[in-house]
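Amino acid chain:
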Amino acid sequence: MARSQDFSQPDLSQSPSQPWQLPPRRLPSVIGSTVVMKGELVVGEDLVIEGKFDGTIVGRGHGQDRVTIRRTAQLTGEISASEVRVDDGSNLENAVLSGRISRTDR
């Protein structure tokens, strides 16, 4: 059976000449500008909303769940994440946001 690697802890089997490094940050998941989604998402990583979303997005709360709402987005519903970034001009219709919320002028 293959052993999965846990990147949250350093690999102590590495030699001292090869110091442990964090894995590179992954690209965010994206709900693209032509995508229409309805439902519930549970995220544990960064999420960018460019399209239309109607429903609930819940972050796992590990500080790795940043949600960015682009100005092309149309959002109806609720987002609860560690950090929520909202571009100026985003269409937030009956939206409830919770977490550390910031506005961007991108």
Q: What stands out?
A: The chain has no helices and seven strands. The chain has a mean pLDDT of 83. The first strand starts at residue 29 and ends at 31.
